[in-house]
Structures are given as C-alpha cells and as structure tokens.
Amino acid sequence: MILLEILIPTYNRPLEITKCLDSVFDTFSLLPKKIRSKIGISVRNNSTRDLRKYKNIVKKYSKKFKKLNLAYFKYSITGRNIGSPKNIWSAFEKLNSQYVWILPDDDLARFDSLSLIINTLTKFKPLLICGGCVKKSYIKDYNSNNICNDDKQINKILDITYRRSKITKFLLSGNTVQLQEYVYKTSFVKKFINSYENSILLNDMSPGVIAIYSLQEKNKPLVRLKKSIGIFRQGNNHLSDWRHLWWKFALIDWPMLSEKMYQKKWLNRHEFELSKKVFQHIFKNLCWRIDILLGLNFKSKINPLLLFKYFGYIYILTILKSPFAFMNELPKRIFTFFKN
C-alpha cells in the first residue's frame, strides 16, 4: 500500500483539470525520485460531456507522470452525473493508500505541498493534516492563475496536538468545507463510508464531518500547517448552483449534520452548540438579502423555519435589520453594475 493518493474529482471542466494537473506535476517534480513512488494519482470523472477531451488529457498526463516514477495514475468515469459528494465518496472505496488528499479539479496544488505532506505523514503518522491555518492562498479571479495571499515562502507546520479538546475546538471554529486543505487517514475514510448509517451525512459539507469522525482514533495527532496546501479558486461561474446553495449548506445543512453527529455521540453537548453556529457570521453578509432570509429565493432553497430553529434571535434580529441593510447596499450594487 502506498503512502498517499491524490484524488482529483472532476465534472465538465477539462480546462480547469489541466491547470490542476499542471500544478500537481510541478510540486511532484520537486520530490526525490524515491519518494515519488509512494504517491499515486486518481482522477474520478463525473462528467456528462467533453469525454473525448478528458480521454486525451488523461493520456497526455499519464505519460508525463509516468516519467516521474509515481506509483500509479488511475482514471475512472462514473458514466452519469451522480453529484459531487457521491462521486468523491464512491471513489473512496477504491483507495489503495494510507492517506488521501482530495484536490478538486478547479483548485491547485501549492508548489511545496507534496514535500510537506509526505514529510509530515512519514514523521508523525497523524489522523489528519489541515492546511491554511494561518494564511490561505486563493485565486480571486476564476479565469486567471494569479494566486492571492501567497508569498512563495516554504510552508511550515504550525503545531501538532494530541488533545481532543484542542482538535475539536479548531475543527468547529474553522472552515469545514474546503476539501483541498485536508489530508485524511484512509482507514477512517473507508470505515466512515462502509457504514450505511453514515450515508445520510454525505453532502457538500462532508469534509468537516469526516474530520470530526476521525477523532474517534486515540493517540494520533492533528497536524496544522501555516499556509495552504491546496489553492482555492474563487468566483467560479461554472458552479452557479453552489453559489446559490451555499447559504443552505452553511446555515441549514451544517447545523443538521451537527445535530446528527451529536446524536451519534461524535460530539458532546458543548461541541454541538459550538458546531451548529460555526457559520452564524454569514448573517452579517446576508443581512440585506431579505429574499433569501424569508425563503423567497427558490434557488437558495432556504427554509426560514429551520433558520429560526438553529439561530433563533440572531435570525430574527437579522430580518429586522434587513430593510436598512438593503437600502445601504442598493447604491453600491447599482454603482458596481454600471461600472462593469
């Protein structure tokens, strides 16, 4: 069994995956030849179009990576659109590695990501690695490769902790959705998906759920890295559904998942209360969107009753502020519209 598999889920984005694979190739080429053989790459295609383009892309990069002496370069197609979460989680069944790093097709590997990941895994054998704990790198303009907040300095370990309370506090106060910043232990990922009861927890917020599930393993540390290992690409116009549904994912789906994790005793009462309010700061940015808050924006699929259930007075207070926030925001939006 190899040490690490880089799992790259993709959906109708042949151009983006070429950029992703280029970034992986660049960080791969910096590794000593002996270490490269400990890493495999698996591309999991959930596409409904451009399959011929994908075939040519895979053929090209398979040859490129083969020259670098990697363990394997695998490619599989779902055959139909089964959705992003199911595409990723079904790929878990075929993992043949001790650890897995999921790098979505529209994100990039940071130049020093693999060297730090491999060194960390070899030295500490952690239950989880999490990157971007001090500074996250991202691409603001989706159509460019201009990386923001990245000073090109070598990434380093922030800290290593075995304390469950500290690990849990970190996981429940940070970002629970950015896949590209997590490296999971494969045995726990497989154990998670092999339970039928856990299948109801699989959705776009599952990265954080699996991280919390991993806490069941004792005497294994969480290793936090200062900078990102995966570079997030913002402003994705190709993912309009995600853009509309983010409010539901964060403000309804995550609290519901937190409740289920509490029922399964993965979280205690205090951790549950902390978990379900991870994203409550979003109300500040959502204040002027009365259409979303009241469930009038059907694309967002927001249920006001559930918002009230999980956030109570915070939700009511946001609604009361909404008319004033809307009048304050409207001139800015009009200016931006005419400026563009």
Show the helix and strand layout.
Layout: E1 2-10, H1 14-29, H2 33-36, E2 39-45, H3 51-66, E3 72-77, H4 84-92, E4 97-102, E5 108-109, H5 113-124, E6 128-130, E7 138-139, E8 147-148, E9 157-161, H6 164-171, E10 182-185, H7 186-193, H8 206-213, E11 222-225, E12 230-233, H9 240-263, H10 269-276, H11 282-286, H12 290-293, H13 304-311, H14 313-339
Parallel strand pairs: 1-2, 1-4, 2-3, 6-11, 7-12
Antiparallel strand pairs: 4-10, 5-12, 6-10, 7-8, 9-11
Helix pairs in contact: 1-3, 9-10
Q: What do you see in this structure?
A:
The protein is of the alpha/beta class and 340 residues long. It contains 14 helices and twelve strands. The longest helix is centred in the last third of the chain and has 27 residues, at 313-339. The radius of gyration is 21 Å and the shape is globular.
Structure summarized in a few sentences:
This protein has helices spanning 14-29, 33-36, 51-66, 84-92, 113-124, 164-171, 186-193, 206-213, 240-263, 269-276, 282-286, 290-293, 304-311, 313-339, and strands spanning 2-10, 39-45, 72-77, 97-102, 108-109, 128-130, 138-139, 147-148, 157-161, 182-185, 222-225, 230-233.
Q: Provide a count of the helices.
A: 14
Into which percentage range does the β-strand content fall? 15-25%
Sheet with most strands: strand arrangement: 3-2-1-4-10-6-11-9
> How does the overall form come out from the CA principal axes?
globular
Q: pLDDT under 50 segments (min length 5)?
A: none
CATH architecture of the largest domain: Alpha-Beta Complex
Gyration radius, rounded: 21 Å
Span from first to last CA?
53 Å
Order of helices and strands: EHHEHEHEEHEEEEHEHHEEHHHHHH
Helix content: 40-55%
What do we call the CATH homologous superfamily of the largest domain? Spore Coat Polysaccharide Biosynthesis Protein SpsA, Chain A
Integer tally of domains: 2
Text of the CATH class of the largest domain: Alpha Beta
Beta strands, count: 12
Q: Major beta sheet, specifics?
A: 8 strands, mixed
Q: Which fold name fills CATH's third level, the topology of the largest domain? A: Spore Coat Polysaccharide Biosynthesis Protein SpsA, Chain A
Mean pLDDT equals 88
Content-based structural category:
alpha/beta
